[in-house]
Amino acid sequence: xxxxxxxxxxxxxxxxxxxxxxxxxxxxxxxxxxxxxxxxxxxxxxxxxxxxxxxxxxxxxxxxxxxxxxxxxxxxxxxxxxxxxxxxxxxxxxxxxxxxxxxxxxxxxxxxxxxxxxxxxxxxxxxxxxxxxxxxxxxxxxxxxxxxxxxxxxxxxxxxxxxxxxxxxxxxxxxxxxxxxxxxxxxxxxxxxxxxxxxxxxxxxxxxxxxxxxxxxxxxxxxxxxxxxxxxxxxxxxxxxxxxxxxxxxxxxxxxxxx
Amino acid sequence: xxxxxxxxxxxxxxxxxxxxxxxxxxxxxxxxxxxxxxxxxxxxxxxxxxxxxxxxxxxxxxxxxxxxxxxxxxxxxxxxxxxxxxxxxxxxxxxxxxxxxxxxxxxxxxxxxxxxxxxxxxxxxxxxxxxxxxxxxxxxxxxxxxxxxxxxxxxxxxxxxxxxxxxxxxxxxxxxxxxxxxxxxxxxxxxxxxxxxxxxxxxxxxxxxxxxxxxxxxxxxxxxxxxxxxxxxxxxxxxxxxxxxxxxxxxxxxxxxxxxxxxxxxxxxxxxxxxxxxxxxxxxxxxxxxxxxxxxxxxxxxxxxxxxxxxxxxxxxxxxxxxxxxxxxxxxxxxxxxxxxxxxxxxxxxxxxxxxxxxxxxxxxxxxxxxxxxxxxxxxx
Lengths: 259, 381
Ligand SMILES: Nc1ncnc2c1ncn2[C@@H]1O[C@H](COP(=O)(O)OP(=O)(O)O)[C@@H](O)[C@H]1O
Ligand SMILES: [Mg+2]
What we know:
Chain A is an alpha/beta fold.
């Protein structure tokens, strides 16, 4: 039976795309069949981490939503096209797919103007899970709490909310947790990203868990090396021993064992 | 020489003489010129005059296995024979003109005539100075770590190979990149050790004064000078050429053995220091800084009162390392002290308002109603 995992954050720039890509990659490395859907239609980004650009990506989620092709045609097989980044070589032969969103500004503004049929999205994802015999479907969402995001929360078995240890994220995360509870999400996790190393991570974890009553799956450090790498690769595959990577592997472990 | 009286007053040997006697002696100086190759005096001859070079160049030579060896060169402003004038000891080296040279000459007879007129007290004083002058070389040589453990006898012989060089202010002793083929010991005055940066600006790396040794290792192996040296003040250095030193070792193989032993001791010593530094680096990597403070104190007390030997340089390097460690430790402690405790403040009223505004929409009600169905549908697959 496949699990749908939405990665969400109240504000943008928390590291959603990087976290989604690394989690999906780590779960695929464990031998699972995994797909990622980029539902951040307004500001797609995760494809970059897999070395895709507008030319290479072919059909997009937008084509499917516009009724121009079946969803299976959109799925890009990453295990067969890892590109030349060093870390991604580990993914050769793995069962990992990406359903990218269009980078085309016309396509983006069309969706923003007309919206899309949430039922169609839902059906598409269902088809995908069956067609690719997925163990896990990861959804990289648009930040905030718009209708599309609420839908992705509804269809998720697990909701992972990313927050930075920053007062501005705390308030929005509280609202998101409440909404998710109201929608009866079966399982929820918090993931703290970009934590300054001068924090005591254990204390951060305990404080966050106590404040929201939600389990914290990991506290990941602010990672200058990731900024350096500049979205060119899957960080945890390139630098497997880096504290950030160790943290993300812990989250992947949590998913594989408990969710 | 513009002012011979003034010059003589600066010589150690004339120090105890009353000024009118110096004036009188200055008038006794005669001039002598030498053509290239002319011998001024030979090694082993009794000392019978004091010479002051005013122009040209004199080579100091000693008898070697294969004829004469040049051990030094002496230019204008240098007095020759001060040391042995009173005692009339044999010249320890010969002197030959390397260029057309003009010298001022004071015969021993003239000097002794004046000397004998001095009160006995001053005569004794002068003899002591004369002896000190000779001992002085030995003392200065003892500053060189390489010579530190040489027996007196060996030093005495080595003294004969030592030359003296005067530098005017701003005069260059050697430039960076020059062949290092001599050892220098500063006797009087100060020099600066310099390099030039990429923009060609001069950087002073160090200032060295009396007793400090320059280029010790160039006696053992010839390497280009790593930095230039320029006189900061009027400076006098003793110098020993590599050739003269090798010659000396050839004559006294026993000394070569002593030095070999010393060098290998120093090598062992350096290696043990490097090992220590590696061991300590490992500790730092593990976050153990406890040693830094005690080591700094230890190495500081060791540095004091030593010359610029390799050992002390290694110690200085280690000392720099230790104080770096202390800095790292301090910074880490400061950071630790400010480890931030996360506190989370949530405005509960605002939170509730926002949740209500979201859940109040028709879309949300519909979604919530269908949520269960959507999920159950999924599970049928
Ligand atoms: N732990 C981290 N430390 C430092 N920079 C990070 C970290 N996680 C993500 N980033 C950087 O933050 C930016 C936003 O990350 P991204 O994954 O695109 O977030 P989102 O999808 O939430 O907008 C990127 O430049 C990324 O490299
Ligand atoms: Mg993103």
